[in-house]
Prior knowledge:
- Chain B: InterPro entries: BP-dependent_transpt_permease (IPR050366), MetI-like (IPR000515), MetI-like_sf (IPR035906).
- The structure holds two protein chains of two kinds.
- The radius of gyration of chain A is 25 Å and the shape is elongated.
- Chain A is an all-alpha fold.
- Chain A has helices at 2-27, 30-40, 47-56, 63-71, 120-155, 160-173, 177-191, 200-205, 209-239, 242-249, 254-266, 268-291, 297-306, 310-338, and strands at 112-113, 118-119.
- Chain A has 14 helices and two strands.
- Chain B is an all-alpha fold.
- Chain B folds into two domains: 8-119 and 353-384, no CATH class; 123-320, MetI-like fold.
- Chain B is built from 18 helices and two strands.
- Chain B has a two-stranded antiparallel ribbon with strand order 1-2.
- The N and C termini of chain B lie far apart (64 Å).
- Chains A and B meet through helix 1, helix 2, helix 6, helix 7 and helix 12 of A and helix 7, helix 8, helix 9, helix 16 and helix 17 of B.
Amino acid sequence: MLSFIIRRLGVMALTMLCLTLVVFFLINLEPNLRKLAISQLDMRASVEDQERWLQRNGYRQNFFVRYGQWLGVLPKQPNIDPNTGSAVPRFSFCDEPATVRYSGVLQGDLGCSTKFKVPVAEKLLPALGATGILMFWVMAVMVPVSLIVGVLAGMREGSRLDRTLSVASITTTATPEYVSGVIFTVIFASWLGWLNGSAASATNQGVTFYNFTLPVMTMAIYGTGYIARMTRASMVEVMTQQYIRTARLKGLSFNAVVIKHALRNALIAPFTVIMLQFPWLLTGVVIVEVMFRYQGFGFALVEAAANNDIDLLLACSLISVFVVLSTQLISDVGYALLNPRIRVR
Amino acid sequence: MQLETIGFFGILFGVIERFWPVWAALAVVLALSMRYKKRLGLYGHLYDSGVGIAGLTICLFWLFTAIFADTIAPFDPLRQFPVMKDAMPGSIEPESGMAFLFGGDRLARDVFSRMVFGSQIVLVIAPAATLFALMVGTTLGLPAGYYGGRIDSVLSFLANLVLAFPVILLFYLLVTPGIRETSIPQWLAGIFFIFPIIFFSTLFYTRYGGRPRLFAVQLAATLLIGGWIYIGLVFDADPLGIISIRPNELNIFVAVVFASSPGVFRIVRGLVMDIKTRDYVAAAQTRGEGPWYIMLWEVLPNARGPLIVDVCLRIGYTTILLGTLGYFGLGLAPESPDWGTGIKESSRLLRLYIHPALPPVVALMSFVLGLNLLADALREQSLKD
């Protein structure tokens, strides 16, 4: 088991290295660099000015050298002002020591956000915290609801309850966040006026039922149907097993059979599915945070991408890729632990 | 200025009336299929369950809407009628005397016509991109599952690499005006679109390679048609001028194919690993058939059930992806009538007007729902066999 985890961690590190290289390449394409130069200078800056700016701030170094610097395996040179000969920080809003040093992701230096004019870590940590709160509530709603729906539907295959719940689950899997968000806002905010159609106040004034229910509902609904379908399939399969029939023939009541014998075995498969939902939730986070104006990770990602904020976007991709890969690992390990029949080679 | 309206029933009957070509086509197709369902194989079996009929009807509804969009839509989806700005549903446009059935949007365009024309964009890009993804995923998944070993490790690693990207990040990186200035979309398109040609050439070669005359005809047809589409799509240089694609559409197309082929790859790989242990594969191996013959003519036909179900679900998922692209304003032109863009435009003004938001939302949801129901019915049927 341990060697399996170590091997997986190795593959994970390799994947992250490859992915960050790809992201680094895409972000540093010539049009993107030019866009950055224009946004940092003013609109009327000539091509020579832009070129000089890019040159001065080290964007014209060799691609791999810059990637190495970002990663922290190659030294970063201090930024020397040609007029005075002394070192000045690249961006006025981020401090930079005037010595040659190794300072990259491996050392914990994520760089400097050109859009928000702060170091990336300072922007990203609160954003991640905000998204964490959102994720927590989404999970707290989505997991119990979908498991209950799935178990109820799978308990008696083909019954009226099963049909109704199955069609309802299929319907929710056909409503992506931007669709359900609009529908819920129309019903609960515009029409009934019960809930706030914007979560902007949740960022600074704290989370309340009034401003946070719509985003949580919107995000939870898309995944609920999918998890419920998986739970149902797993439950249906378990209910046909021999030991369930034995328990029934022993004279146990239907409820006791479901709760004591079927439930535990039926919940192994959905565990994997729930863990693998995280990458999907990332997309959902972006849509919901933009739609309800909630200042979290997804909001930062969209702002970074729209303004070509290189360091922030790289940090965002690093985090999202890390989340995806680690949830995959957890789901594999957890599945093996939960299910005694699976033994990892 | 106060606009005349036609009232709720006016709208209802107006909508039903505008869709008349769709009703006619639906009636013909459903009646014929019901009549001959015994002879129609898997497709005919769909008519045995309520879910199947519902799913099929919704999908066909949107298919016919896309085909007859010019007849159904009363107005040009891009034309602005200043007097109809934010008009309520059912308002009558004074000049033509026709009603804006679902009202006007912020830029005074007819929401109904935009919804109808939006179906064209979705129903062209989503199935086409899914088919290309299917080709890419199948062509790579077959050898990965069949040979295993190093080929499998390398291809699986690449597939996992793409799958580890959150879709939204991938789109923000791959679908930008900046990237259209470089040749990356062309390169990717060049790589992806060659797969169908390789697939069909291999398909024919493995079966008919021993009959040179027949094979030559097939190869020539594949190369001619494939090459024609390839030149049209990748270089936008179709000599006949029939196939053309705008740079932003190519960009979207490539990004969607890129995002969904690893999923197909994984499914095909899993299916092949399962099927290659069957007896008929062993029999083919004993006969001395080549590995690609076995993959394409023994394994693939037996994997068709799960693959068809997956394609249905995937078209729905691709529709959702297209909507996401539209919602974030990536790739598609800002005035494009597709559903995602429509939702983006109208969701910002939900506090003031809700009527421009609902038609694209309902359209997208119903189409995806139809595909999901269809996939569900197909799965049930293939389990029965």
